[in-house]
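User: I'm putting together notes for a lab meeting next week and I want to include a structural view of one of the chains we've been expressing. I don't have a solved structure, so I'd like a prediction I can at least talk through. The sequence is below, exactly as it appears in our construct file.
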Amino acid sequence: MTGELRPVASTDVRRSEAAAELSHLVSALWKLMVRATPAHASMPVLESQVSILRTLVAAGPMAPAAVADELRLARSTVSNLVRDLVDDGLIERRPSEFDRRSVLLAPTVHGQAVLQRFREERVRVVDAALAAVPPQEMDRLAAALPALETLLAEFERMADEATGHSSG
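Assistant: Thanks for the context. Below is the predicted structure for the 168-residue chain, given as structure tokens.
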């Protein structure tokens, strides 16, 4: 019958409960993993600043507008974030080789080193934490990684859809 309420299936309840728990755990895991990583003190405070630094280290010099497009941030937001990253010596503004009126953003040697050190220390911290996980639980964690990759891809698709961007 149309409009008739159906009982919520147990899989729907399990999925909703898992969504709430996963939402909490992912946020808490990330925050504590970062805090437990000694090099976090030298990283930018804002995740969006870290994203800019990561993008520039991975892609090389980029125009501010390209960084904004890549990260799906407003250009004015990127401008404000870049100012602090430049002040901290993590990135620099360079004149474009092709158009001297344009500027490119590039990671500094210091910025690259800070990001690399953070990544290495983060892996060591995660490895040390995983060493405390009992073998049976470690097997379950390892078995869950493909599902987490699928979840990541779905979040990316949803984010692209929500912002009107297409991945790829």
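A couple of points you could mention at the meeting. DSSP finds six helices and two strands in the chain. The CA atoms of residues 34 and 54 lie 15 Å apart.

User: Perfect, that's what I needed.
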